[in-house]
Q: What sequence folds into this?
């Protein structure tokens, strides 16, 4: 099974200081056809005005990842976690049995553009926890670079789910492949640019904000173009 989620078809919430595109149902945007993809529950593409943000609010039993595309995101939470997340960096907050946190644009003059990602955890009521990953662009140029995993492999963030998140940055003339297992689910999200994706004897041109979900597919998926992409390797 292959499903497409085109950027223009996503839900949108515009609140003055916030312009958000929702891949899956979230907040005021509800679509029963788009409630998530396996354990992947939320991908919100948020643009936040300078100095604005989300005041302190609570979550429980959710793995929350923030991937900054441009600008800087300031995080504080009641577990003691906090910091400023810059472009290409990944932040993880395991909400566990309950945590309060705030997210604000760290700049008073420039907007921040980031992806807010939620995954259901593989255990409940754990202690809240926080982590931050700051790879360099070269780490993912022309190859897959692991950002998050269940065991913290290769310096990735250790999350509480049997899932792996990888990033790749393709420059013109570069191509990469990912081997798919029919026992897993995969979600490919284009963050920037344009990528040509070849999978299951089909070819698609995908732009920033577009995504593919794959389940029960085996074989190689090939990508080329000039783009930054994220690949979620998820339990079935």
A:
């Amino acid at each position: 099974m292959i499903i497409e989620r085109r950027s223009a078809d996503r839900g949108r919430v515009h609140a003055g200081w916030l312009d958000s595109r929702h891949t899956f149902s979230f907040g005021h945007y509800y679509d029963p056809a788009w409630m998530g993809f396996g354990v992947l529950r939320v991908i919100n593409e948020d643009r936040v005005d300078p100095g604005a943000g989300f005041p302190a609010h609570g979550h429980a039993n959710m793995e929350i990842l923030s991937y900054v595309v441009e600008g800087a995101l300031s995080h504080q939470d009641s577990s003691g976690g906090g910091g400023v997340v810059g472009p290409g960096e990944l932040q993880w907050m395991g909400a566990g049995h309950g945590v309060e946190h705030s997210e604000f644009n760290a700049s008073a003059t420039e907007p921040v553009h980031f992806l807010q990602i939620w995954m259901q955890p593989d255990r409940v009521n754990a202690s809240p926890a926080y982590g931050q990953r700051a790879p360099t662009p070269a780490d993912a140029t022309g190859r897959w670079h692991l950002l998050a995993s269940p065991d913290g492999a290769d310096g990735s963030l250790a999350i509480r789910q049997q899932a792996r998140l990888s990033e790749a940055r393709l420059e013109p003339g570069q191509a990469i492949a990912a081997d798919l297992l029919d026992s897993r689910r995969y979600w490919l999200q284009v963050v920037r640019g344009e990528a040509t994706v070849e999978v299951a004897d089909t070819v698609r041109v995908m732009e920033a904000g577009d995504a593919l979900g794959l389940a029960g597919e085996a074989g190689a998926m090939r990508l080329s173009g000039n783009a930054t992409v994220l690949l979620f390797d998820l339990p079935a």
About this structure: DSSP finds one helix and 20 strands in the chain. The mean pLDDT is 95. Residues 200 and 217 are 8 Å apart (CA to CA). The longest strand covers residues 219-235.
